[in-house]
Every structure is written in structure tokens, then in C-alpha cells.
Write a structure and sequence with these properties.
Number of domains: 1
Radius of gyration: 21 Å
Largest sheet: 19 strands, mixed, barrel
Structural class: mainly beta
Shape: globular
Strand content: over 45%
Number of helices: 3
Order of helices and strands: HHEEHEEEEEEEEEEEEEEEEE
CATH architecture: Beta Barrel
Distance between the termini: 33 Å
CATH superfamily: Porin
CATH class: Mainly Beta
């Protein structure tokens, strides 16, 4: 869906994504709420706050374990100009532009404001990248209050706005509510409205729902709506998440087996296409070796992996990517260098 646009800073052509500037979960727990009666705190009445996060990031832990493969050669140079401003230069060399993206150069910039919400969160955050043809990706994230966060994302391709999205999140004491509008067009009266709600039932269980409403001349009947249910169960270092609607089922499992090893399993079933795929992934972190490896295998016969190795004392990171699809007899390999 279009609301996943925020999860990627660059295009979905395998370009390396920028490191996260701030965490997405728990932003609503900043500050201290007090009840106006008898000086009692809200926590003493409702209990301690629960950091439920957002419905958009429900499967985030599982997704982050899977490797983001790429093909060809990539060189990325990051340069911090100040504590709040950073620029990047990315050069991509692709052997098959039709499948793996167009070769070329992209310039990126990231600005982090001075509004500090926590030791690891500062707002606003503005980031984007552009190529010589003017194709632009832009993201803006701002913490308006202790509980309200706003986001904006846009993509410009071939001098036209190909995608745009605005959202507002409210982080309550034990719930999170979001409203999203995607690709609004006032000229032909089309767009998408999305509502998210995630409620913390207990410290381990959260339940929520998503409502998607689409309207416009291209939509059969002029309008369409779909509702899905979501749930999450956390026990120690293990997390189960799932969403279900009339179109299919999406289940995820994540476990931190040790300080060095993470495991993830994802199952997606599409009722309309009568198709189902299961994916197993793992991530190995070796801090002493300055190495991170992510691997995955799915039931469609795809095996993939990405290795990232810091070449200390040089300020370089070497990235190697490989993906083999046994059912299609296709093999893709990539090599990248990150400086800075």
C-alpha cells in the first residue's frame, strides 16, 4: 500500500536506505501526563503507559531481518557537514536497467532539527534524494507535540508527482491512532484514506485494525473500502504479529536467539491469487569482526544474502549481495562500497 512509502527513503530499486534518524515506537510516552483532579498522575489511575508503537510498524522487526539485495555496482559517499546536516552521493551501475533500476547518480541530503524529544530523537527530520533528471524522493517527519507526529512523503518522476502521502499519528497512554491520506487529487476527485488503530490490551498483547477507503473515477463503482484486523503478542525476546482481511493473511515471527543471532519467519497468503509464500530469514551480528550478514530462503525457490563488513581502520564499508532464484534459473550479484 501507499502508506509503506515512509518505510523507504530511496526508490525500491535496491538503492541503500539511509540509517534511521529516530525510533518509530514509543514516541507518545514522552513527558508526563497529570490528571487535573487531586493532583493524581494519569499513570497512577490507568497504570503505567504501554509503548504499543504504530500499526504501520507492526511487522517491522521481522522485515528488518530480511536482506535488501541489489544488483550491479554501488558507491555511496556520506559527508556530515554539521551535527544537523548530512549529504550523500550515490553512484549506481546496473547491468539490466529494466529489472534492477537505472544506472546513474543521485544526490541526497538529511537535516535533523534541534527539537530533542529523547537522547536519540530530534525533530524535524527532512531527507530526500534527487537525480540529474529531476526525479525526487522527499520525506518530512516532525514531532508536533509530545503525542502528535506528522509525516509527509512525495515522489516526483518525469516532472510529475507520482506519489504523495500525508499522515498524523496520536500516541495515547496505551494506544496509537493514525490517519493517512495518499495520492489526493482534487481535480478528478480521487485518493486514498487510511485509518490505523492499535490498542495495548496487556503488556504482551496488542490488537488493532486498519480501514482503507479508496475513491475516484478509476475505482469500480466509484469507491471501495476494506477493513483488516491486526494483532501482536510479545513474550520476552519473541514477537508474533499478524494481519488478516478478505484478501489474505500476513503472519510474522521474530526472535532474538542471542546477542549475535536474530531469526524471522514470514507467511503471506493471497486468497484472490490462490498463492502462498513462506520466508525464513536470519541476521548474524559479529561486532568484534565488524560484520553483519543477513540471509533468507523462501518457498518460491529464492535464496538471498547480504554481507556488510567495515574495513577498519579505513572509513569504508563493503557490501556484497547475492540472490538465486532456482525456479527461474536467475542469479543476481552486487557489490557496493559505503564511505563515511
Amino acid at each position: 500500500m501507499f502508506h509503506r512509502l515512509f518505510q523507504k527513503v530511496f526508490c525500491a530499486d535496491g538503492t541503500p536506505t539511509r540509517p534511521a534518524i529516530g525510533t518509530q515506537e514509543g514516541a507518545g510516552e514522552k513527558g508526563k501526563d497529570t490528571a487535573g483532579t487531586h493532583g493524581l498522575s494519569l499513570s497512577s489511575i490507568l497504570g503505567p503507559p504501554r509503548q504499543v508503537g504504530t500499526l504501520e510498524d507492526l511487522h517491522k522487526k521481522c522485515k528488518e531481518v530480511f536482506p535488501a539485495t541489489f544488483e550491479g555496482g554501488k558507491v555511496m559517499i556520506n559527508k556530515g557537514l554539521s551535527n544537523h546536516f548530512q549529504v550523500s552521493h550515490t553512484i549506481t551501475l546496473s547491468g539490466d536497467p529494466g529489472k534492477t533500476g537505472v544506472s546513474g547518480y543521485r544526490f541526497g541530503a538529511t537535516f535533523v532539527g534541534t527539537k530533542q524529544m529523547s537522547p536519540t530523537e530530534m525533530y524535524p527530520v527532512l531527507l530526500g534524494d534527487i537525480d540529474p533528471a529531476g526525479n525526487l524522493n522527499a520525506n518530512v517527519i516532525h514531532q508536533l507535540t509530545d503525542r502528535i507526529r506528522g509525516k509527509f512523503a512525495a515522489q516526483i518522476q518525469d516532472s510529475q508527482v507520482s506519489a504523495a502521502q500525508m499522515s498524523a499519528e496520536y500516541h495515547g497512554h496505551d494506544f496509537t491512532a493514525s490517519i493517512i491520506t495518499a495520492n489526493p487529487n482534487l481535480v478528478n476527485g480521487s485518493g486514498i484514506l487510511i485509518g490505523h488503530y492499535l490498542q495495548g490490551i496487556t503488556d504482551n498483547i496488542s490488537l488493532g485494525s486498519e480501514i482503507v477507503y479508496q475513491f475516484g473515477p478509476a475505482v469500480p463503482g466509484g469507491e471501495n473500502a476494506m477493513i483488516s484486523l491486526a494483532g501482536r503478542y510479545i513474550r520476552g525476546d519473541t514477537t508474533w504479529t499478524g494481519t488478516v482481511d478478505f484478501a489474505g493473511v500476513h503472519l510474522c515471527y521474530h526472535s532474538r536467539a542471542s546477542e549475535q543471532l536474530q531469526l524471522a519467519v514470514e507467511v503471506e497468503t493471497n486468497f484472490r491469487m490462490q498463492d502462498s509464500v513462506a520466508t525464513f530469514g536470519y541476521q548474524v551480528d559479529l561486532p568484534k569482526a565488524n560484520l553483519v550478514f543477513k540471509g533468507m530462503v523462501d518457498t518460491h525457490g529464492t535464496v538471498a544474502g547480504v554481507l556488510e563488513k567495515k574495513l577498519e581502520p579505513l572509513p569504508f564499508t563493503l557490501a556484497l549481495s547475492g540472490a538465486l532464484n532456482h525456479s527461474k534459473n536467475q542469479f543476481r550479484m552486487g557489490c557496493g562500497i559505503v564511505l563515511g
